[in-house]
Amino acid sequence: MQISHYQAADPERIRGLFARAFSDAEGEAEGQSVGQLAFELVANQGNHDTFVFVAEQDGELAGAIVFTRLLPANDVSAFLLSPVAVRTDYQGKGVGQALIRYGLDALKAEGVEVAVTYGDPNFYGRVGFEPVSESVLPAPQPLNFPHGWLAQPLNAGTLPLMTGPVRCAAPLDKPEYW
Ligand SMILES: CC(C)(COP(=O)(O)OP(=O)(O)OC[C@H]1O[C@@H](n2cnc3c(N)ncnc32)[C@H](O)[C@@H]1OP(=O)(O)O)[C@@H](O)C(=O)NCCC(=O)NCCS
Q1: Residues lining ligand 1, judged by CB closer than 6 Å?
Q2: Could you write out the DSSP letters of every residue in 18-78?
């Protein structure tokens, strides 16, 4: 399994991976929706606001993760990890955690201060994320599951205070994702 920073990411290839993994896990409609989200985030690449990391086996995508910049009102450098997918037949083999660890190391090397995500604390807790209060890290949209709002400092022992409003990438800035 080869993990790399997918710098010239092909948005259609990324859409296919997310659509398939989420269709298998949560049904066809969710697959189409997350596939479209991943497509839009990756199609917007080409600046310093998006990082895509992939796991490949024999030239095929086995997993992918997308980080996009969060813009707080102060100048903390932060990225949101979302979405994350591992192809169904590769799940449960450590690919997801290896991909996320690789991505976090790469962001740290770029001087990013904070990684943020929104998901299952049991899974993301394995790669260093901890629940964070919205008073320390305001969310871009009202949260339906505040217990899934998670973050980790990358270059310091404690999370820097981020002041709101916090903006996220436009494709993610829709109430249904939060
Ligand atoms: C979630 C996902 C990315 C994990 O990737 P993976 O390569 O299967 O994960 P790893 O092998 O690194 O880690 C597996 C561990 O995480 C746990 N885990 C896997 N998916 C989980 C989920 N959705 N929620 C909570 N825990 C999960 C497993 O129980 C497993 O624990 P175990 O080793 O004690 O059995 C992958 O299963 C996936 O793409 N699922 C469908 C899409 C999805 O739900 N993505 C969003 C995640 S919030």
Answers
A1: 21-22, 25, 84-86, 91-97, 119-120, 122-123
A2: HHHHHHHHH-HHHHHHHHHHHHHHHHT-SSTTEEEEEEEETTEEEEEEEEEEEB-SS---E
Angle of CA points 86, 31, 145, to nearest 5°: 85
Q: What is the DSSP letter of 165?
A: P
Which residue from 117, 123, 150 has its CB within 8 A of the most atoms of ligand 1, so it is best to mutate?
Answer: 123
How many helices (H) and strands (E) the chain has is answered by: 4, 7
Gyration radius (Cα) of the chain, Å:
15
Answer whether residue 110 is part of any domain: yes
101 near 40, Cβ under 8 Å? no
Measured in Å, residue 93 CA sits from the centre of ligand 1 at 9
- Kindly report the protein residue whose alpha carbon is nearest to atom 43 of ligand 1: 85
Look up the domain containing 11 and give its range. Answer: 2-169
Nearest CA to ligand 1 atom 25: 123
Structural domain includes residue 178: no
Count how many domains the chain has.
1
In a domain? residue 132: yes
pLDDT tens digit string along 50-98? 999 999 999 999 999 999 999 999 989 999 999 999 999 999 999 999 9
Please check whether residue 177 lies inside any domain of the structure: no
